[in-house]
Design brief:
Length: 495
Amino acid sequence: MEFSIKSGSPERIRTGCIIIGVFEPRKLTSAGAALDGASRGQLGAAIKRGDMEGKSGTTLMLQQLPGIDAARVMMVGLGRERDFDDGKYRQAIGKAISALKQTGVTEAVLCMTAGVKHRNLGWHAAQSAIAATDAIYRFDRMKSKQETVRGVRQLTLLVAERGDLAAGQAGLKQGVAMAHGMNLARDLGNLPPNVCTPSYLADAARDLAKRYRLRVQILERKDMEKLGMGSLLSVARGSHQPPKLIIVKYDGGPRSAKPYALVGKGVTFDTGGISLKPAAEMDEMKFDMCGAASVLGTLRAVAELKLSINVVGVIPATENMPGGAATKPGDIVTSMSGQTVEILNTDAEGRLILCDALTYTERFEPQAVIDIATLTGACVIALGHVASGLFANDEALAQELLAAGQTAGDRAWHLPLWDDYQDQLKSNFADFANIGGRPAGSVTAACFLSRFTKKFKWAHLDIAGVAWKSGAAKGSTGRPVPLLTQFLIERAAKA
Ligand code: BES
Ligand code: MN
Ligand code: ZN
């Protein structure tokens, strides 16, 4: 979808459809009131007839109103003004854009660039781009016949004052970049695991690098052997697909500025290995590379925005398969850090690949490291599909990430990384084990990673519950690209 922004009065806009909000009960917003005046009360009349109460999630289309240049006016219910918040705003935009898929409208104007208290015009513009892009997203490239695409292709945000254009434009640009990053992450996530292999992810990184002048380096199995990445390699042993360690660099800041490192779990299919997973829903383990996808998506957004910071993405990519050569429960491996790990469950593989990627990241002397991983089923039990689990060894970094998630509509929740939990990783035979038992499974997974992050400020996002949706709406979400991009936008502004 193409986005633009302009100023003017709604009744004089020539477009396929003007979209306005209506609060419950029956209250027009200022753009709606202007249209009502110009059409001599047509909007008010429709409301009086009882066709639009303003209930959240409802829409009503009016055609060819007198005194209005647009072919249609769509009213979208916003719910009670008192309760109108970030989520309701995104939901209203999503409903409106989705409803237009049932019409011939390809080009529309949105008069909803305000309404949420404590949020400025730039925020509304950014969030409208994200919500609208989400509403028209489809993934049909694996279908033998593509349905003809209906829906809005061109969306213009309308602001009242010319003086608002600059702020609106800046917000819009950020939102569009986040939406593009999310789409990239979603596409990679949705691809089937026989297509999206570690080699495919490496190619995707190369493509991205070519398009945005990023630098990319792919380490092969031999390179990883030389580096002593025994933990990462132990996960790849059961697979016929070669593992890849993908490094992508964006240099937008001064040469001397230390980079931000994003480390993303790239398990392109997680069978559990010898600790085989049950059959039900195992197909969803194709999404076990969504951390990796979010790293590429965020790099895309950062590059599109030309942020003046340096970022390095590090993606350990592998399948986790059973096989004659696969790692067995009880095997002990030596990580790149020199620490030995007793693998008591081969299904706790994410931490095994991340730990070596984290050690590798030390060489970039990063100012902060954030790893992103669909790491634990326990995180889904703790936080459901709403918030990512956030762990950090630095309180200020944690607070910044929480705030960025709030702003971007991509929230995380802080969980403890207290030493008290570390005991659960005790091993009789190696330095520690790769699992800590059932209690606090997400915390002990983070504790495991914390043993490889002593040299830098580090945060860990467990996105197991938020990276994809199950059921009828099964598919990748593109989270946490907005959170990560928002964090980096704010860091770039401070630099
Ligand atoms: N990729 C899974 C985590 C996962 C499971 C995410 C279900 C979303 C839904 C991860 O590799 C895994 O299998 N974790 C195990 C760890 C356990 C063996 C300690 C888990 O959560 O069951
Ligand atoms: Mn697993
Ligand atoms: Zn996994």
